[in-house]
Amino acid sequence: MSDFKLKFENELFLHQSVESDINGLRRVLDDLTMNRSDLELQIEGLNEELAYLKKNHEEELMSFRGVASGDVNVEMDAAPGVDLTKLLNDMRSQYEELADKNRREAEDQFNKQVGALRQEISANVDQLSSSKSEITDLKRTLQALELELQAQLAMKQSLEGTLAETEHNYCDQLSQIQIQISSLEEQLLQLRAEMENQNAEYQQLLGIKTRLEREIETYRRLLDGEGSSTFASGGSGSASYSSTVSGGSGKGMLPNLALGAR
Question: How far apart are CA 18 and CA 14, in angstroms?
Fold first, then answer.
């Protein structure tokens, strides 16, 4: 996704730069159009000036012709003077040469400016054509990138759905495992309580067993002592045995002996 984002940013930067170049070329084209309009206005002004000069020239010729026709009548009475016809023809040729010169200079200047403008327009048109083709390529690339972006977004959405479903399944499994763990902990606590109770009962029985063994041992010692005294003194031993049995301790020994026998 980072590579795709970088490519998209580069293509967007190129697209923006091409658009800025096209806007600059449009401004140049507008400037050329304005310059062409100015040159056309200048040509129109020169044509008007040329027409005005021609008109003035014709008016001057007419005036000179009127003067010449009047001078002919004067020359009949005066001495021969300057040839006005030749002078007028010379003036007319000078005016025509001047007008032709101005016209040629204006046409040359116009042709030069128009040629420069045509070359500049041709270069700008070529650049504009290349820019348009580049823009077309960039648009195609942008469309391809947009399609790829949509595909990546769809894949991302699908992966997010799969991830959410997986998380939900794992949460369910985890909750079931936690329930099982809680049940096992309860069972373990019950077993521990039962073991503690059994241990307490065992300790109690062990204490009872120990006491019984002590009482049995005591009773055996008493029996062993009474037997030896019987062999030593005869009847006196039986009397002492009967007196011992008839005492308080003998009563306690008999039940304990019975429990030991069990």
Answer: 6
Contact 91, 60 (CB under 8 A): yes
Q: Tell me, what amino acid is at 260?
A: G
Q: CA 19, CA 63: separation in Å to the nearest integer?
A: 65
Taking phi over 0 as left and psi of -120 to 50 as alpha, with beta for the rest, 78 belongs to beta
Q: Of all residues in the chain, what percent are helix, strand and coil, respectively (each to 5)?
A: 95, 0, 5
d(CA 55, CA 228): 185
Joined tokens for residue 96: 């025509």
Residue 72, phi-psi category: left (phi > 0), alpha (psi -120 to 50), beta (remainder): alpha
User: Measured between alpha carbons, how far is 223 from 40 in angstroms, rounded to an integer?
Assistant: 156
Residue 174 pLDDT = 92
- Render pLDDT for 37-72 as a digit per residue (tens, 0 to 9): 888 888 888 888 888 888 887 887 787 776 555 544
Q: Which of 98, 89, 54 is nearest to 68 (CA)?
A: 89
Where residue 113 falls (left for φ over 0; alpha for ψ -120 to 50; beta otherwise) is alpha
Spacing of C-alpha 101 from chain mean position: 70
Tokens representing 47?
């044509």
- The token duo for 58 is 């014709």
Half-sphere exposure of 136 (CA within 13 A, CB side): 6
Tokens 């009967």 appear where? Answer: 242
Residue 34: its pLDDT value, please? Answer: 86
What is the mean predicted confidence (pLDDT) over 78-102?
Answer: 69
Q: Mean pLDDT over all residues of the chain?
A: 76
Burial class (CB in 10 A: 0-12, 13-18, 19+), 83: exposed
